Structures are given as C-alpha cells and as structure tokens.
Amino acid sequence: MKQLSPLGVSISVQRRVRAEDSVQSMADESPEYARKPNVLGSAHLLKLAEGPCMEEIRKFITADDWSLGKTMFIEHHRPAVIGTEITITASCLEAEGPSSAWKVDVRNEHAAILSRVWLWFKVVDSTEYEQRLREERRLLANVPVAG
Predict the structure, then answer these.
(1) 147 within some domain
(2) Does residue 6 have a pLDDT over 80?
(3) What is the pLDDT of residues 39-82, one digit of tens each?
(4) How many folded domains does the chain comprise?
(5) pLDDT at 147 over 80
(6) Could you read off the pLDDT of 97-120 as tens digits, one per residue?
(7) Which domain holds residue 53?
(8) Which residue, 84, 85, 90, 125, shows the most beta carbons closer than 10 Å to its own?
(9) Is 1 inside a domain boundary?
(10) Does the pLDDT value for residue 18 go beyond 80?
(11) Residue 66: predicted pLDDT
(12) Which residues on adjacent β-strands are paired with residue 37?
C-alpha cells in the first residue's frame, strides 16, 4: 500500500442538484422522507462528498486496495434546492499510513456555503477485507433467528 494523498491536496467538482438527489427520493425507505422539503438529502450529500475524496485516494493506492469510510460528520448551513449548481471542494487535511481526513465544502453558484462534510477514510487490502467479510457471513449463518 502506498502512502495516501499528501496534505493540502484539493479537488473540486461541479454539478447540478437533481431531483434524484432530493430527500423526497428516499420515500421508499420511509414515508417520512416524502414529508420533507424538496432539497438535497443528507444521504445524497454524503455520496457526493465522498466521491472526490475516494477518486483522489485512488491515485495513491494499489489496485488491490479499497478506501473505506470510517467516520462522517455533516453540517448543514443552507438548503440546496433542486436545480442549484453546486461546487464540491474536497481537501485532504491529514494523511498518515492508511488513514486520511478530509474537509468537503459544498457551495452554491454564489459561493455561499451550503454544507460542510468531514470525512475519515481508511485504506484496506481487499483480499484481507474479503476474508473478514467471509468470517462475518459465517458467523451470521450460525446465529439463530429470533422469534
């Protein structure tokens, strides 16, 4: 595994907030989502924030490595309504061994901060991680179903 992204690396991407990014688009998970305003949903925001970070980390790791999320923290400052042009800027604040910490700012076309997302990733060897997953599946298969 190579060293992760150097401190200070920054990447920006632009995109428009689409209807499928809305909190209401998750109504099949819970009817309560349908009652929410038609704005960028937190789950979709997290997905959009993680993307540039993972793409940047990929440049520094082997093909057999995966970057996995460890911790996430979201601050909402203003709503991002459907149709808003947003700029997502991800900056690596810390990189040591397999771990990295990122600050992701999401701004509208007027440069107003909409959200700030703090992300921590860990790079793992995919073969070793697959072994952990096989062990988890084995343990789950031996757990009796309650009821």
Answers:
(1) no
(2) no
(3) 999 999 999 999 999 999 999 899 999 999 999 999 999 999 99
(4) 1
(5) no
(6) 899 999 999 999 999 999 999 999
(7) 10-141
(8) 90
(9) no
(10) yes
(11) 95
(12) none
Q: Is the pTM of this model over 0.90?
A: no
8 Å CB contact between 64 and 1: no
Q: And the tokens for 124?
A: 């793992």
Place of tokens 């910490």: 101
Q: 3-state DSSP call for residue 125?
A: strand
CATH number for the domain that contains residue 70: 3.10.129.10
Say whether 65 sits in a helix, a strand or coil.
strand
What the block records as the tokens of 58 is: 């990929």
Measured from the Cβ of residue 144, the count of other Cβ atoms closer than 10 Å reads 5
- Strands (DSSP E) contained in 23-135 are 65-76, 85-96, 99-107, 113-125
Domain membership of residue 2 (yes or no) is: no
Per DSSP, the three-state class of 4 is coil
Q: State the residue for tokens 């604040």.
A: 93
Range 38-45, long-range pairs (CB < 8 A, 24+ positions): 38/81, 38/82, 39/79, 39/80, 39/81, 39/82, 40/79, 40/80, 40/81, 40/82, 40/84, 40/86, 40/114, 40/115, 42/74, 42/76, 44/20, 45/74, 45/80, 45/106, 45/115, 45/117
